[in-house]
Design goal:
Length: about 240
């Protein structure tokens, strides 16, 4: 997850003031704050069956989630190589579904991926709402019945965000008691879920009025204190 630029924060529509979001001192890891209440989840039970760790042959790690049996979504910036100014080759990326402490249910190779139109890795702040990569895999990694529906991000709605953060990369770890704080004018979803580097690409889950959890967005940016921004998931 990247740290949110100030210009994104001041665009918030909602009840928070800029000072309330930005006043906290910088943390060792952005997005966690001093009152992070994250926990380990059971990645072999709903709704986390869609969760996987996206890895590259160069040692990079992010989080991703299944949107179809053999299709994953992650943050596009996870696949960008600043040193070469190119995206990683598809054959150098793979997915470990249900990863925890070196064990996983399924390993799948990425055959090709599609970067969302409009995303520019050299202008991350300006194109963050399109920070999305769709990964096509060489095999099915989830059953159709385990997929989650899409959901709208409503202000005040209960939310959850779990991934493979830098400080707990070996387990599915995250915040299961957070909420949607508002929407930015550039369509980013602001949440107060504790998430940081490594959580990029995690699904932002929102509880719908009928009680069912659905996917509202893809976590892409962190604020200075607890919380961050998710790119909306087209549906």
């Amino acid at each position: 997850m990247k740290r949110a630029a100030g210009l994104l924060i001041i665009c918030l529509l909602g009840g928070e003031s800029v000072g309330e979001i930005c006043a906290a001192p910088a943390m060792a890891l952005p997005g966690l704050g001093s009152d992070s209440h994250r926990l380990v989840v059971d990645v072999n039970a709903a709704p986390w069956l869609i969760l996987g760790r996206v890895q590259t042959s160069l040692g990079g790690r992010c989080t991703g989630f299944a949107v179809a049996p053999s299709v994953m979504v992650t943050a596009a910036h996870c696949l960008w190589l600043p040193a070469t100014r190119h995206y990683i080759a598809p054959q150098d990326a793979h997915v470990l579904m249900g990863y925890a402490m070196g064990r996983y249910r399924v390993h799948a190779q990425v055959t090709h991926f599609v970067i969302a139109p409009g995303y520019d890795p050299e202008n991350e702040g300006g194109t963050a709402p399109e920070d999305r990569a769709t990964l096509v895999l060489d095999r099915a990694v989830v059953k159709p019945q385990d997929l989650l529906p899409y959901a709208d991000a409503r202000m005040g709605a209960a939310a959850m965000l779990v991934g493979y953060p830098q400080d707990r990369a070996e387990v599915p770890y995250g915040d299961t008691a957070c909420q949607i704080n508002g929407l930015a004018v550039n369509r980013l979803i602001h949440h107060d879920c504790a998430a940081t580097h490594g959580d990029s690409g995690s699904p932002l889950l929102v509880r719908q009025p009928d009680g069912v959890w659905g996917i509202a967005g893809i976590d892409v940016l962190a604020t200075a204190e607890r919380g961050g921004f998710a790119a909306p998931l087209p549906h």
